[in-house]
Design brief:
The structure is a homohexamer. Helix content of chain A is about 40%, strand content about 20%. With about 325 residues, chain A is an alpha+beta fold.
Amino acid sequence: MDKVLVKDLVEGEAVTSFFLAKQVQVRQRRTGESFLSLVLADRTGEVAAVMWEGVEGVGRDLAEGDILKVQGLVGTYQGERQLTVARLRKATADEVALEDFLPRSPLDPSVLLGRLQAVIDGMQEPFLRRVLRSLFEDEAFLATFTTAPAAKAIHHAVLGGLLEHTASVVGLCELLAGYYPALDRDMLLAAAVLHDVGKIREIAWDRTFDYTDAGRLLGHITLGALLVEERIQSIPDFPDALKERLLHCILSHHGELEWGSPKRPKTLEALVLHYAEDLDGKVNAFLHFAETHPDPQRPGWTQYNRSLDRYLYFGRVERADPAPDA
Amino acid sequence: MDKVLVKDLVEGEAVTSFFLAKQVQVRQRRTGESFLSLVLADRTGEVAAVMWEGVEGVGRDLAEGDILKVQGLVGTYQGERQLTVARLRKATADEVALEDFLPRSPLDPSVLLGRLQAVIDGMQEPFLRRVLRSLFEDEAFLATFTTAPAAKAIHHAVLGGLLEHTASVVGLCELLAGYYPALDRDMLLAAAVLHDVGKIREIAWDRTFDYTDAGRLLGHITLGALLVEERIQSIPDFPDALKERLLHCILSHHGELEWGSPKRPKTLEALVLHYAEDLDGKVNAFLHFAETHPDPQRPGWTQYNRSLDRYLYFGRVERADPAPDA
Amino acid sequence: MDKVLVKDLVEGEAVTSFFLAKQVQVRQRRTGESFLSLVLADRTGEVAAVMWEGVEGVGRDLAEGDILKVQGLVGTYQGERQLTVARLRKATADEVALEDFLPRSPLDPSVLLGRLQAVIDGMQEPFLRRVLRSLFEDEAFLATFTTAPAAKAIHHAVLGGLLEHTASVVGLCELLAGYYPALDRDMLLAAAVLHDVGKIREIAWDRTFDYTDAGRLLGHITLGALLVEERIQSIPDFPDALKERLLHCILSHHGELEWGSPKRPKTLEALVLHYAEDLDGKVNAFLHFAETHPDPQRPGWTQYNRSLDRYLYFGRVERADPAPDA
Amino acid sequence: MDKVLVKDLVEGEAVTSFFLAKQVQVRQRRTGESFLSLVLADRTGEVAAVMWEGVEGVGRDLAEGDILKVQGLVGTYQGERQLTVARLRKATADEVALEDFLPRSPLDPSVLLGRLQAVIDGMQEPFLRRVLRSLFEDEAFLATFTTAPAAKAIHHAVLGGLLEHTASVVGLCELLAGYYPALDRDMLLAAAVLHDVGKIREIAWDRTFDYTDAGRLLGHITLGALLVEERIQSIPDFPDALKERLLHCILSHHGELEWGSPKRPKTLEALVLHYAEDLDGKVNAFLHFAETHPDPQRPGWTQYNRSLDRYLYFGRVERADPAPDA
Amino acid sequence: MDKVLVKDLVEGEAVTSFFLAKQVQVRQRRTGESFLSLVLADRTGEVAAVMWEGVEGVGRDLAEGDILKVQGLVGTYQGERQLTVARLRKATADEVALEDFLPRSPLDPSVLLGRLQAVIDGMQEPFLRRVLRSLFEDEAFLATFTTAPAAKAIHHAVLGGLLEHTASVVGLCELLAGYYPALDRDMLLAAAVLHDVGKIREIAWDRTFDYTDAGRLLGHITLGALLVEERIQSIPDFPDALKERLLHCILSHHGELEWGSPKRPKTLEALVLHYAEDLDGKVNAFLHFAETHPDPQRPGWTQYNRSLDRYLYFGRVERADPAPDA
Amino acid sequence: MDKVLVKDLVEGEAVTSFFLAKQVQVRQRRTGESFLSLVLADRTGEVAAVMWEGVEGVGRDLAEGDILKVQGLVGTYQGERQLTVARLRKATADEVALEDFLPRSPLDPSVLLGRLQAVIDGMQEPFLRRVLRSLFEDEAFLATFTTAPAAKAIHHAVLGGLLEHTASVVGLCELLAGYYPALDRDMLLAAAVLHDVGKIREIAWDRTFDYTDAGRLLGHITLGALLVEERIQSIPDFPDALKERLLHCILSHHGELEWGSPKRPKTLEALVLHYAEDLDGKVNAFLHFAETHPDPQRPGWTQYNRSLDRYLYFGRVERADPAPDA
């Protein structure tokens, strides 16, 4: 059965398809009868849903994160689309494909991966190149690394978000390595490729995005250091000094202790990686927020941004007529 | 008379030349007689000096910042060169050239200025181009801007330091404007050129580097905003919205209130300018410190860096034999 | 048509008058029909309103900040007055006077202005007196300055709030100038008069109170410095040192960098102005909060004050019988 | 024997008088012989002293804080006066008067005390007046209160400093009570009189100024609250609510927890007292620093002020010719 | 009449009993009629209640904290029990016992008190033992101390909470006094017994738990110091040094100024008491939160803990089969 | 040749023995001749030394950390012992034993180790016991662990300091595990044993104590996690959940991000370990400081303690005569 996408639901039409249950609540009407209030989702968005009848049979069994087969009618409530559900049941594992339900980065992973591979191939330092190849030629690692989100929520909570973020930071580091010749290019780029690799063990993305126990207890910085250390142990004669500098970049990439780095940057590469990652994250967060939270009443301005604690201005000044300078 | 440079003073030789008095102290010997303890300087460095005889006639008249004609003999004291002065007098204004006494950036100002001019010429936005041209075609401004230091002390306390710093930040912003297409290139580059322009009124460099009263009371951020506002007022029809965004970049380039910016960045250009300026400053400070403060007992490490509150590691790992990857 | 004031609406009566729409929402009933939920306001307060019929024709056109002609009936909902609207339309510009809709300071502006004028006239320093007169004899400036609010929200969000706040701070500074003879009285009072003048460009008050773009991007401290600098430039021979000290007071009146001042007070007048402004603001905020937020369950105490992060006690201890001291 | 004052010591003259030993060090000459290096002081200042001969007999017995009878000759060392001591011995208690050795406030204590008495007499609230009278009619309290310093070091480390500081804060609070009619005048003034009374138990001033054990362990805020509570207990029927508000002012007068107040101000009187005390202290510290630490190289500016973390500007702009305004 | 406990209310049954009114709201139905919305409570929990009829007669008289005699029927609303009230009136003082309505610590106060008495009896230092006995043999004090809660809300807001908390901290301090022989055991234990004694004047618990005026204005740290000082004054010859050290422990037990201590710990006993109190509080808060706020969706984890700003993990790893070590 | 200890050097005697050079400076006399200024040390203390003759031959070769064979005469300079060196040369490796030159903990390592072994043997959890045994039965690990210092400087900069600190924290955790039954005893004790194990790779102690490169770049928290992870990998079937909780305790034992922990405690064991380590460190630092820095002028008080930012009081109140309680 073809998946009907949330973004394609049209008011007034009937629908039968699979959706992810992001919220599940059994509630009471004034009359005392139970009804089911749901938020259904797939990779294209979310829609509210209610089920008025037959709730007793199904309600208690449902949990957030379940994928459901739903039959119902698309209506409206308070100006928003709302699905009135007639019947539903849990889907079986073989009926659905995970990719239909989680949002995915719009960028082509093979292109991004190709860029990282080219960066790795261009490295002169043999041990750094080797540890990176040991990962990027490992199918299991690649499958995980190219699918992982970069965050539980906020901007990069999309499949492929980690790859997208990594490629963006690596690209910026390439520019910086060109601008500051004192930088050890191979060290900087290796660290950029690996800086967030611990996220593949920090975040789970089987149905929704959430932290793993290891993520909560150890965090992606330590998980990344452990993962890289493990790989390095499999490479004979990997120089200790090289390992320490590489791990130092991973540990210190948040820049300050209070931001979760157990060490602050002490090498030029660690310093630059921290700035590159921070700047790239800030630019992308700015653009994403401007796109998703414009202030409807005030052109050019966003709504209040809590994480930056300010309003943002994204308006462009109309290009003036070239006359004045003539 | 040719200037004898501090760096060329040789132990055991006599010298007669002009030097800047950076410190002047009249002190007493156990016997009760006065002597003069000086630090003499020029653009190449500093040397300690003492004058044992004839102090009464000259000592009380001298002040720090005076340029002196000195006749004496180069000796050693506690392992350092020391000049024993036989005679000295204040120089007259026509005997000396300021440039001999203050250090100068090793980079060619005309090359740096050429780069800024090219950036200005490449702007599409006519009003931004025009306000920049009004400054960069003004000989008085140019003379000041190309000579000004970028700081009272620390790294850029050299003639031409402001130009060097500005060109470095502008160059980095050009790269970033290429990497992030959402940036308004002209706004970012105009702001980068002007971000520290208030320093020409904040710092004085007639004989040594020091803050002006205006610098201490108003600071270069406000002085820069006032200077740019002044120029803009002379350009008819300069759009208010453009002016506000440009001044916002200048005001917010320190990034946070507690670092002296009265506003935090709210536009993408202001955000990126702040990062570019901060990163460029940190990289140059790192390299300068590594060059000037290596730990003599520990190869690859610097002495303790107070402003960063840590030791820095600048050593390179020896490139390994390429074998392991083969 | 005479304006019917919000404070005079009586339950059970019909009303036809003009009101400012502070909130506008089109909502759905269970039955699917739209209704309009409004908050109507004028200078005397706010009242909730609903319009059940005929919404389609008007709802989509309304925006917050519109002034509406409304015909309806005053009722009650959940213990509060509520206007049930039968008909409404937007007012035309010539039907209404702005002053009816925005709250105004209860103090007489001409009295307050008279006090400031007397302070200005009493100044000995000719240049400070002259720059102040150039503003306070300028009708356009006066019209704006006497109408401007002192804040977007909180206490002084009333027409005339800036004048009221300025006069209060100036009055306190007069006392302090008398108490501390070391103070430069003219400098302190000039700075007190001008310290918040940038607010006339920071806040807009055409229909509601909000920050202007210039206010958000530059802030009233910098806007004030620019405004004063502009005036000073029109006065020949205004001494630079005097200008720098005056602007310094404006820049530093928030006291600390993290409170938005790009410089902290370095002169005695700047220091005292900062304290006077802070104290006066705190006293007025305390009194206003005690008046508007008493804890109904606990005599003498206010509700929790978020900005001060504490409960306030405004109760008076009953004067004891004078006996014990006799 | 008349006391010879430190400020009156003349180079080249012999002296025999009593001085307080502020520093005592037994040191060795290159030759191995011991000599005594001293700092001698009285209420007018300090002078360095050395004793070359006969040290063995006296050196080990001396301690800082001893008052010594000294016979010697005034000379110079490194541009400063220095006393070369021929003989010395410890003074006996009956030979000296403490007031000769500790600096004293230049203001007349009876005048200051008169002002406080007038404030107390002017109070309407009988219990507050009574608790203050119980202290200010108690000779033992008065003797201590009028002699106590206001600080161990810094500005008010002079006999009578507490009275001077208290009178200054009370005077300012009188002004403020007049300016803000909402203030409970009696409460504010009673709290102002008592706010630092705990200092009489916090600081010892028998020979030098130092904290007592109680001062270090409990601090003047708690000691003051205990002292006032004690007095209140001796007044029958003192209302609890009055006592709590009075003690609250004492506890909260430092304004914030991190400045040592266990409670932040919650009443208007506590708030105003905190500001008055802070402002008065800052103004006096500014003036004192400007007087004692001018920058000799930069007219109008002080040396760097560590506690405020900035340079201060105390220069006056020359009054301009009144012409421009004519 | 026997009290019917909230925890024993059964859906569908009628009930007539006394309950504490924790919330009282008079609300309107769409139809305009008033109804009463209540939260009723006793020591075993809370239950929502509504009264549809006859509200006019009773509603305006009720206040939060009243104890009511209620007759009604237990039903359900939104999955929770709800009492529909037919009649209610205020209880008279002689109808109810306070203990029925406030939660009480499950631990036996006589056992806890016995432990404290044993600690006091075991003290060698006669004055410390004596001041403690003067309190713990005072029936009025004991009645209050054994009933007082330890906090207004959070964990220990139960009758007897102060005794429970004190006994727990004292027990931990006994262990620590054994582990660190340098500790003055008697001082540590006396301070532990008394550290929070000021809470008997800081919190009121007549019907609900709330701060007293003295609590808000002075706080339990100062109130405790005043209370202990008072007792000490009644003991002849109590050594000052002993008193200062004991009061110091009470004042400094929050550890840092910003946590409300006017002095930070300067003695070993004060330091250890602070840690013991902090650790014991954190452990009990952890356990209480794990018990009351498990995350229903994630075994072993709690919901988000705001005061600690993190999720907590309380799961136990299943004990592995002992084989691997064999 | 028997080692002559620094503590046994007697003024006036000749000495020939080995010493560690902690400081080496070549300085000039007024006359221009070089001399050598040294600080010599062994495990019992330090002594200043000078060498006036024959410096040219040896001075340039010496480095801090060298062990020297010295022949000279013990004299005095400025009241301190000073060694005047006649001849010196570097020692060869076989002439000296490292233990003579570095201070050592006075506690018997075999006793401390025995306690840790008993704790390990008493564990019920087989995997935790096994990973600990794998370390504590590894001779290489034991040799390092029992010799390592616990800090580069401050208190535990002694050989065996890590073992001493670990045993003290483990002992305290045993007590706490008894007091709080909810604690997982085995987890807490395993974490206590391992919490600082990374210090064996963070600090070097071949001749003096200093951080390794790995220590500076990665820190003992990450090094400890890597070391423990390595061991765990060698144990088949070690449960992931157990590993994560154990590593979490190591990572979070500094308690807060800003103190270098990349995660804050989320389990009860991690929380308690953090407190136990912090308290034990503070108590030992207090006692050590009181012993080494008493204020000679003020009995019972220490000198100013910079790391705690206060004076400490270690005096005991004289036990009063038991009479008052009788």
